[in-house]
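Retro notes (design track)

What went well: tokenization of the new backbones is finally stable.
What didn't: we kept losing track of which sequence belonged to which structure.
Fix going forward: every design gets posted as structure first, then sequence, in one message. First example under the new rule, 102 residues:
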């Protein structure tokens, strides 16, 4: 049983990675995306690695800029009207961390 303590350490490392793997969605600011092509559950912006966080650059994947998507998000709760039916309910947003949380 000489290596008996190792799993505990590994577990802690996994937990740390688990909380840090999500990046801030450039549209809504919730920590929901892991990389290029990930779709945010809160606003349905598809993370575009070519655009990143440059809010004025047109994202071909989304067919709009982040600035435009944010206007939709703040007004209707999704980055586009057609995605409104796919986003999680507003009450469920509390289960996700936001970049403003602390
Ligand atoms: Zn989002």
């Amino acid at each position: 049983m000489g290596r008996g303590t190792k799993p505990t350490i590994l577990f802690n490392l996994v937990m740390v990675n688990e909380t840090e793997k999500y990046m801030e969605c450039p549209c809504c600011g919730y920590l929901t995306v892991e990389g290029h092509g990930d779709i945010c559950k809160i606003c349905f912006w598809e993370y575009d690695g070519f655009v990143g966080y440059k809010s004025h650059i047109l994202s071909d994947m989304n067919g709009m800029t982040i600035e435009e998507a944010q206007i939709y998000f703040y007004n209707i709760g999704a980055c586009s009207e057609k995605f409104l039916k796919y986003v999680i309910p507003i009450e469920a947003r509390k289960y996700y961390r936001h970049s403003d949380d602390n």
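Added context from the reviewer: DSSP finds two helices and two strands in the chain.
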